[in-house]
Each structure stands twice: as C-alpha cells, then as structure tokens.
Amino acid sequence: MMGSFHVHSVPMRRSINQLKENEKISEIYLVSEKQLRPNKKGNLYLQFNLSDRTGSITGFIWNVTDASTCDFENGDYIRAEGTTQRFQGTLQFIAKSLEKVDASSVDTSEFVRLQLVDVPKAQHRLRELLRSITDPSLRNLADCISIDDAFIDQFSRTPAGVKLHHAYPGGLLEHSLQMMEIAVRIAELYPVLNRDMLLMGAFLHDIGKTRELAFGNEMYYTDQGQLLGHPFLGAEILNEKIAEAEKLSGEQFDAETAMLLKHMLISHHGTYENQCTKLPMSLEAMTLHFIDSIDSKIAEFRKYMHDDPNAGSPWTNYIPAIERKLYKAVKDLEDRS
C-alpha cells in the first residue's frame, strides 16, 4: 500500500492593504516613527508605524512598563502580533508584542514601495524643459545644474515627503517635473506670466528636500530638515548654484532674478499657517503656490484611495486628516493609480 503524503503550501503574507477590522495579525512589517509617549495619567504608551510595499498603518502598545517592548529601531523589520480596530474611521493596529526580525531572513522586495517614476525618462524630460529657458541668467543656472550629474542623481532619488504626496524614492523628481509641465501650460494661457521664471521656480521650489529628507528602509527628516526646513535649505542651495553658474559662465547672475527666485522658494507654501516666512508677492510666486497645491493634493488623494482597505467599495473610510471620505470610483480606480 502506497503511503499518503501531504503538500504543504507556504502561507501568503498578510499585506497592509488586506487588513480588515477586528482581525488578529501575526506578520512581519517594517517599523518607523517609533515614539514613546505619556498619556493623560502619565502612563507610557508606544506609537509606531507599520508598512510594506502596499501601504502603512499606525500602531500602539498601551501601558508600556518594560523597556524591552521598545527594543528595536526605526527601519527594523519586526514581527507584529495583535489585533486591528477602527477608531474614528481609521484602521489601527493594537499590538500585543513586537519582536525584531533579522533582515537577512526577510524578502526586502515586499517592503519597498513600487517605483512609480521612470527615472531616466523623467531626467531626459527635465533637462529638455530646462534647455527651453531663454533668459540668460536663468539659462546659465539651468545649464550649471543640468551638468551636475551627482546633484541630479540625488535629486532623482529623493522622496518629496515622508507620508503623503510622492513619499517614495523618485517622488521629488516626479513632483517637480509634473509642476514644470503644468507651468509651461499655464504660461501659454497667461502671457502676463514670466514663463522662464515660473518654470525655474517649479524645478527649484523643493530642492531643499535633498537635504531635508533622508531615506533607506525608512524616510525621515534630517536634523537640519527639522531645524531649518526645505524652503530655507533650498535658498541656501540656490545661492551655491548661482555662485557655480557665475564661475562657469564668467558672468554676473542678475541680482533681481536671484531675489525673485528666492522669494518663490520661501513663499511656495502660500500661507503663514503652512510655515511660510513670506506670503507670495509676485504673479509667478502666487502661481507656483497653486501649481504645487494642485499636484501635491492630487497625489495625496490618490494615495488615500490606493491605500484604502475598503476593496470593492466606491468610498474610502472617513479620513480625519482631510475631514471627509473620498469617492474612488472602483471601476476605474486601477486606471487612476
């Protein structure tokens, strides 16, 4: 009699975007944003973020009394055991235990957000648009930056954010290039705008993020990013690039052009509430702010729709950060993501 045998299938990992309410979980995720906080009674709790290539979720461990509970660092892989729950419309993870896992035992491709931009193609288009600038000072500056391969490489790998819009390597390139494309089209509709100034402002507006943000297994703010912010850092980089352009071309950079560019960098957030040091005071600065808002908000809403766990529903969960649900039109969401 032939012996029977069983084929054991390897269980599929439970991705973030598959998690449901009141679900018991024991799975490996990437951890970031670890914070030990006191509650109103002074008791400590741990807040953290779990992520994989499909999305992220905020987690908590209540009443932390043992230091070993926090025995891991941001960017580590951990096995998280606990239960999901919904609070004010948002899915959260309440952990029973978090145990660090050796990175060598992990398939890291499961935790890298999909590369959403074709970098070589985007770099080619970026340089093409910069070459379309005709103003002598701005063209010298554009040429100086374009030939700096090390800087363009860093610019092309930097994310544009750590959580919301374009929060992945290459995000800064994609965001800036999209803004440049919008700038070209708006300048055609409104000839009163200085096309070259607007185009250069769109390229430079977030250039400080190359120093504000760092990234590896996680994306985080550098010390100078925390203390100074990317508008200030961007103005510093602009000063450096102007000096390089003057040395390269042997010509003095136009002082008023430099001032107007710096104004665009420090005012592009639009309001004091959004940490502007100055409000937009030129047509180009005001237009740049709204171009930035358009592209970043569309990317942010797309992310909320893409990461929403309500597969099959035309509506997302209620999103406290924007105080609404979003209609994601399930039938064509895949075409939008």
Protein described:
The chain is an alpha+beta fold. The chain folds into 3 domains: about 100 residues, Nucleic acid-binding proteins (OB fold (Dihydrolipoamide Acetyltransferase, E2P), Beta Barrel); about 170 residues, Hypothetical protein af1432 (Orthogonal Bundle); about 30 residues, no CATH class. The protein contains 11 helices and 7 strands. Strands 1-2-3-5-4 form a 5-stranded mixed beta barrel. A hairpin with a 2-residue loop joins β4 and β5. The longest helix is centred in the C-terminal third of the chain and has 25 residues. About 0% of the residues have low confidence.
> Count of DSSP E strands?
7
The CATH architecture of the largest domain: Orthogonal Bundle
Any idea what the radius of gyration is?
23 Å
In whole angstroms, the N-to-C terminal distance is: 56 Å
User: What characteristic shape results from the CA principal axes?
Assistant: elongated
Low-confidence stretches: 4-10
Q: Give the overall pLDDT as a whole number.
A: 85
Class from secondary-structure proportions: alpha+beta
Q: What is the element layout, followed by pairings?
A:
Blueprint: E1 24-38, E2 44-52, E3 55-61, E4 77-87, E5 90-101, H1 119-131, H2 136-146, H3 149-157, H4 171-189, H5 195-204, H6 209-212, E6 213-215, E7 219-221, H7 223-228, H8 230-249, H9 255-267, H10 283-307, H11 330-336
Parallel strand pairs: 3-5
Antiparallel strand pairs: 1-2, 1-4, 2-3, 4-5, 6-7
Helix pairs in contact: 1-4, 2-8, 4-5, 4-10, 5-9, 5-10, 8-9, 9-10
